[in-house]
Design a protein that fits this description.
2 copies of one chain form a homodimer. Chain A has 223 residues and is mainly alpha-helical. Chain A folds into 2 domains: 56 residues, Orthogonal Bundle (Arc Repressor Mutant, subunit A), CATH 1.10.10.60; 142 residues, Tetracycline Repressor, domain 2. Helix content of chain A is 70%, strand content 0%. Chain A is flat. The termini of chain A are far apart. The structure holds a DNA duplex (30 and 30 nucleotides).
Chain lengths: 223, 223
DNA sequence: TTGGTGGGTGGAACGACGTTCCAGCAATAT
DNA sequence: ATATTGCTGGAACGTCGTTCCACCCACCAA
């Protein structure tokens, strides 16, 4: 249980949870979710797996800590949007961009419940919902809806990043998927075929924001 | 590549992808996501791991097939809701209830992109969006928003189910989490503390539906 | 009827993973 | 100087997904 109180630095190369998490984030960013292994992590830290386990209970806790570490920066400042709507968009886009930069965060957010990172996002969203002037009874549902939508997009973005071959560009992937949609059975997938061209040219970030705005529209409609 | 064309049944106990998927679903339902193993699966089918690999490429494909198999039933019939709004609610609740009954589906939906099951949900949602009479340019965004929201809830429900100890009731879990929210730092989590009591008494299914209605409200607001 | 062919089987084995264990080291306290 | 404690790092364990391959048996040609 890493009390870490008495002496701050017994050796110059002292291990610490912070250093471990930092190395884990680097590894995740470079090699993806499957690249984080206690073996390569301990090699990078020039130690053995056992030493890491003295600071971190298990891999799950390490992933949570890594997610928190990255999202802490994004969620540090209170949103400065002029209106509550803009503040909500700001929070949502902050999370979106963080996931875009570190796709493994998306997997983590979508997989693990009641993580402190998710809770902080929930809090930021909820405060702005309160400022929106809708009935108090709707606050909980509205904040939850926004959070779940964001987590849903997070999971999908992470899945897309995971399944993408290193050599292909964004347009390649979208183009291929768009053609797949266009070639679907017309009887079974009329709608999906209709929007196939839009898939090719759409911007993930803009569409994400459009979804936020739809929920926001529904919330403000309660006034 | 399992052509499976010429002869329908070489032996009475013939293995097939269907039988494998069926056994996998049983295993997932009984033992959870970590309970599905090629070893116990092959034991249950009275064969070896190698035989399974003749019919299924890998575990990922097996999980996709299992998810599709369960959701196929839910998505078979066109929604019979009187209004497009009700039809959308019906599709969403069908998926929600399926995840409630088989939590592992939630993990799978939230994790894997462009799965055929997700595509079928998207199609059902999109058709009803078309019937809603909103501008065509908004169809893609609206259907995506609904799908992402549903997938987000799916992932969270699966995560909740995963982290729940076998002995505890729903009220225990909610009560504990509610107390945790209530005990958060008032300076940092004012909103979350405010809604803590609502967390204890809320109904997941109703809240899910409330979220769908918020998006629906935003969409119909575009008319 | 018989012999060969090949789709399908199942069990052994491989490599990698998360995790545990423990002998030892380096600072501090006695 | 010695004992204690916090911490290290490497070996080892059990399990997993996956691969390999010797074998079997239903079919087909002769």
């Amino acid at each position: 249980m890493a009390t870490r109180t008495r002496h701050t630095d017994r050796r110059g190369d002292a291990l610490s949870k912070e250093r471990i998490v930092e190395a884990a984030v680097d590894l995740l960013d470079e090699a993806g979710e499957s690249g984080l292994t206690f073996r390569v992590l301990s090699a990078q830290l020039k130690t053995g797996p056992g030493a890491i386990y003295w600071h971190v209970a298990n891999k799950s806790e390490l992933l949570v800590a890594a997610t928190d570490a990255v999202l802490a920066g994004v969620l540090a400042a209170d949103p400065a949007g002029a209106t509550p709507e803009n503040a909500i968009r700001e929070v949502a886009l902050g999370v979106f961009d963080a996931i875009d930069a570190h796709p493994w965060i998306g997997t983590q957010l979508a997989r693990v419940a009641s993580q402190s990172a998710a809770l902080r996002i929930f809090e930021r969203l909820g405060r702005q919902i309160q400022a929106l002037g809708v009935p108090e009874t709707a606050h909980f549902d509205a904040a939850s809806a926004l959070l779940n939508y964001i987590l849903g997009v997070a999971g999908q973005n992470a899945a897309n990043a995971r399944s993408q071959d290193p050599g292909t560009t964004r347009l390649d992937v979208l183009g291929a998927e768009s053609e797949l949609w266009a070639s679907l059975d017309p009887a079974e997938f009329p709608f999906t075929r209709t929007v196939a061209p839009q898939l090719r040219d759409h911007d993930d970030r803009e569409q994400f924001l459009a979804g936020v705005d739809l929920i926001l529209g529904g919330v403000t409609g309660l006034r």
